[in-house]
Amino acid sequence: MNASLYRVEVDCPVCRETFSTSRVRSKFCVVESRDTDFCVYYKGCNPIFYEAAVCSKCGYAALYDRFTEIGPEDAGRVYSRFAGKWNGRDFGSERSIEDALDAYKLALYCSQLRKDVTADIFTSICMRMAWLYRIKGDTEEERRFLAHALEQYMVLYDRGDTPEKMDEITLIYLMGELNRRLGNADDAVIWFSRVVSHSMAGQKPLIVRMAREQWSMVRNTIKESGQDG
Ligand SMILES: [Zn+2]
User: Which of 35, 53, 163, 182 is most buried (CB neighbours < 10 A)?
Assistant: First the structure.
């Protein structure tokens, strides 16, 4: 087994059996660089590959950190959907990018079967899938998942909510950046301008700087494409 990985036993809240999954040792999680939508690149093993856990016994999949957060009704729904159909695939060993994507696809599928899944969980899954497709070089799939994430970030924002571990100004910046990456220049400009004028701008100089940089990048794109900018 890869020295940067270790195995953990997980009690499945859906089938009540135990399975094992791999995690990356934190000392091996050395950050190499970050993209402007917070995609992190690591030297060596990438922990994102292991953040979706899949029960080899029943097929239930979810983000590792929130694996047990499933109510009895949803657990029953997931259990009966896989019953008799699950092939017993074990995701517990070292994962290729395809294995990682398959694990996230299962997590996404399970999140769609459930009624208690929040936009926060859905966006976390979609962003990670977009990043994996970026690493893989599949731009079309990357954009598809960025668009899904953006749609749900808008739902959160409209409700006056934010994802876990993200403040409002960062969410606004990210919506600008996802619009920019998806080619929606006008929308990107609107969100970036909201970052700069936000009441928290003074406390978040890094986010404000990133918003200004990406905003000027959008302006250049608009100029280059000959639109009025
Ligand atoms: Zn299970």
Answer: 53
